[in-house]
Amino acid sequence: MKRQLLLSTAALLALSVSSPAWSQSMEAGLKFLDEEIGDLSTLSRAEQEAELEWFMQAAEPYVGMDIKVVSETITTHEYESKVLAPAFTALTGIKVTHDLIGEGDVVEKLQTQMQSGENIYDAYVNDSDLIGTHWRYQQARSLTDWMADEGAEVTNPKLNLDDFIGLEFTTAPDGELYQLPDQQFANLYWFRYDWFSDPEVQADFKEEYGYDLGVPVNWSAYEDIAEFFTGRDMGDGPVYGHMDYGKKDPSLGWRFTDAWLSMAGNGDKGIPNGLPVDEWGIKVDENSRPVGSCVARGGDTNGPASVYAIAKYLEWLNNYAPPEAQGMTFSESGPVPAQGGVAQQIFWYTAFTADMVKEGLPVMNEDGTPKWRMAPSPHGVYWKDGMKLGYQDVGSWTILKSTPVDRAQAAWLYSQFVTSLTVDVKKSHVGLTFVRESTIQHDSFSERAEELGGLIEFYRSPARVQWSPTGTNVPDYPKLAQLWWQAIGDASSGAKTPQEAMDSLCAEQESVMERLERAGVQGDIGPKLAEEHDLAYWNEDATSKGNLAPQLKLDNEDEEPVTVDYDELVKSWAEAN
């Protein structure tokens, strides 16, 4: 009898947890505005209240519903999960569980739901790198169609899509919007502004290299600066001129798919991504069908520019970075520059900004300003004007077709709430991952700019358009992305030369494409591999059509080093704006 009673109690408890009696409260919404938002919004207080009132009314049919959404664990999403989700629940009566898991786990859950049709999560914040996948597999809802049809009644009239800076990255070649940007950060150059500005250091550099120490415009200058600082005593002992990581780990793949090859100069011109050959070296035809990755099919994954990119990565990691960096992962290497022993880093994510400006760090001044700055990344010898110059991560709300309509509608309300004009300025101050132009231009960021090491200046500059996520040439991001860390890991460990590693990578990418072509799962926008020819053939074919890739190997991959004064660079941005 006792056991039966315990079972009955457990069953009732489970029922009460899964079906809570949630209610709506505008009072809770007003308290949220008072205590959390204040004047950190592009909307007036009256406009904020009106927007919250709209959310409450639109949510009435879903009161008591319990939805689940998921994102990777970064500061922005922690704020959403811990602060914005409870506020949304209190306002609307929709219980939101916002799970935070690793980026790879997000993709795995997404893949499982796409393949099984089982509704694991009602919405995902996944990278816009999957735009080519979502477009070709048609497992994600087109938000363009959604907002005009089943989602029309729950689409915020004040959403203001034109204000989002990343919609170009989440729109497919069919013109449809498949994802709504939630957070965005770039991969830039980071350096110790205090050391670069030191007259004694400047004089020593000028005497040794014959030109001014400054922000490197090209890789030749970056290499000189790395060499100059490595082993130099900057007051607290010798420092390193470069920081990176090299452990054979999934995060090593991001290090390269996140546009490293484009920085070297692989692929074609084109913003936001090179066409017909993109920064992964994947070529598409006039119908956006992938036709190859290897040079033998007109791709550029194993072309001279890509091999040069891998060779420079290895050379700098071995010669100028701390020895332990070779055994580090992305997350392990991230905090190292903040410890004060690194002069510059060519591949640094602005998502680290929030952690890099904490009081008491060796890289912070006593007045709360940073000793460091961020600037545009230098480019390799194969790079040409008109190419993308780096990567921009755009975590974006994605709703799969396998999610029931009512749950999708409730999740769509939440995704709009956490990106709304009411909350976006405050959220951006917490996470520093901008998705709205109005937020970037907000007066509060003009006031805070001095504390953020160039982040605001970069996002307000004309330069930012050269930073973009993976584009639509990639037909199956989850399958192809996992090939990269294994291939690069072989080069990093010395098991393969850079050429051998990239030859292997492009062949494996084409093997996946061949299977997709054979299966026909992506229809007439899926891969259709081209005939094989040599590099000279495809280079001539490309140049005859006004394209670049694959480029021929240069006789000399060293170029004249060029630097620019950081303060003059920022001034030029201001004048351009």
UniProtKB/TrEMBL annotation:
A cellular-component GO term for this protein: periplasmic space
Coiled-coil intervals, chain numbering: none
Main location (coarse class): periplasm
Pfam families: SBP_bac_1
InterPro entries named among the record's database cross-references: ABC_tp_sb, Bact_solute-bd_prot1, SBP
Keywords assigned by UniProt, alphabetized: Cell membrane, Lipoprotein, Membrane, Palmitate, Periplasm, Signal
Residues making up the signal peptide according to the UniProt record: 1-23
GO MF annotation, one: transmembrane transporter activity
Compartments it resides in: Periplasm
Keyword match Transferase: no
Family note: Belongs to the bacterial solute-binding protein 1 family.
Protein name: Glycerol transport system substrate-binding protein
Organism: Devosia subaequoris
Source organism phylogeny: Bacteria, Pseudomonadati, Pseudomonadota, Alphaproteobacteria, Hyphomicrobiales
